[in-house]
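Researcher: Please predict.
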Amino acid sequence: MVSAAALNKTRYNAVRFCITIWFNTDGKVNTDRKTASYKLALLRSLCAIAQREPHMAQWTQDGNVDIPLGRIADLWIEYYLPLIGYKEFVPQNRGENLNSKRPIAFRKLICQLAEIYPSTPAGLAQFVADRDRDKFPKKTDDLYTETIKKITTTIIKGPVCYTSGNIFQYNKSKKSITINGELWRELVILGHWIENSLIINWAELINTFSRSTKPFPVTKSIELLLMQPQFDRWVTPAKNAFKELQTVQCVWSNKTIHQGILDIDHAIPFSIRHDNSLWNLLPSDGKINRLKSDKLPTNHLLSKQKDLIIYYWQHLYTKEHNLFTIESRRFMGEKSFPKNNWENQLYTTFIETIEHTAFRRGVERWSI
């Protein structure tokens, strides 16, 4: 277990890293006048991928890292939909207002998406669910495709092009953003703290942008920026799938569970990862689930229960095929879902992620 002193040192290093990026006179970004929220959005999306989908990173021979631009653009929609869809105007660049002749590049498209998916946790949840299950109606799918295209162009021509220090580069052949390998390692280690700092910075920037009219409260911006793309602990798809099994055993204790008292456990606790991906949702006895709480299972327990974990994944793969394959592909960092031996590949990524999370975040381990 990591001590409080060690955690405080980690927080200090994260803050120091943010200051180095944004304000250091030798800096990478500090000489760039922040006239829009684009650079904050780019760094935040890289932090999110480093923390939750690190296997999406592809290392190059020269020690850099390629991150898929399409995934970054998807996260931008999740960040900007609550802001742009909010009932009050929330500016995202200097001088932007309701009558702006030069709004941010994709505001109009996000506004159209917000008419379909309201700026609420439920609306954002429905957007993510429809996207990941490939259930957009034709008109919505065309709008989504156009929005992704506009955002990717904005990223390439905006923060990638105008960030000093060349810390971001566009790889046209791979359709990815290339960043320095050392920076990527920092994001993997400290991204949790850095992302929180970026959110505060973004909220303060919005307040600055809005001062010429009516200052938009920093606290409200933070609330919108922290909006989750799912309901809190939204486990309905997994629970419905497991209820179809004739017999359900607790994934950790092997105890037979009666359908009326079936609990769904986040293998990596929601309080740590905020991830309702199907691979992370497993059936558990209620008492066992409460004992596990916000702890991570030990490596020994995971190894012991490997066959049962994979059995439940296979069931989810059958019942929620599109959603399971999309979420698992991102988690494993694959361009397409593996046709063969995906179970062991997913299990290896699962184990590695739990071990890294325990080490980086100092999370207590648990076993029966």
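Model: The mean pLDDT is 88.
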